[in-house]
Amino acid sequence: MAGSKGWEGVVLKLMKGKDFTFTVTGAEDVTADYRRVSFTDGGLLAAAGEAPHPTMWVRVWFEGAGRPHQRAYTLVDPDPVAGTFSFEFALHDGVASAWARGAKPGDTVDATVQGTGFTAPQPAPQRLLVIGDPASLPAINSLLDAYPQTPATIWFETQHASDADLPLRVDAARHEVRCVTRDGAALADRVKAELPDLAGDPASAYVWLACDTATTRTLTAYLRKELGLPKHRVNALGYWRPAAA
User: Fold this and answer.
1) Is 214 helix (H, G, I), strand (E, B) or coil?
2) CATH class held by domain 6-113
3) Strand locations in 108-190, DSSP E?
4) How many CB atoms lie within 10 A of CB 14?
């Protein structure tokens, strides 16, 4: 991306963020509302100096209305040897989705890496309790891949009929998916009604949560204050904010 990245770029530089340029190698529509774009990594994975960790993400810069906008995306199937990975876009109205819809081989996009660690829960969870939506699907899949033998219950919020065809990497023998249609507080209400029966001992339960910021905030407070889960047993991050009406 030509030109300055604005005040956000200045802040990331002060926080020792490293910049990389990714080059598109291909793109495909997974569904009418979900698109996968593949890249060469511009040296990112080699510079990381360690194996990619679950939910690894970077800040990507997109041009819109004459200025840069940064959005965070999870690396999908990173291959350090080949220097490749993909991003998956839950399509909506916005600068990142607009870019993804038109992405073609040879296109480039800039990214900044600053703080993308993952701390494995200790003791290891007996069951993963996962709450998310299409925007966090890549991170959910990477988490399931990292714990291939661990049972999981996934509350997955959907918006489009096509979301039923999204590539959740679940095994019916170990994973249970509970779909919730997006409708106000429906996801939070469903989780509050059902999660306590699965959480067991708060000291050993593990909840991974990433959806819209309001729902994430509501459920994080519920898990910590009402269910008594310790801070290190709840991994929560607000992935997006609803567009203003």
Assistant:
1) helix
2) mainly beta
3) 108-113, 128-132, 152-158, 175-181
4) 9
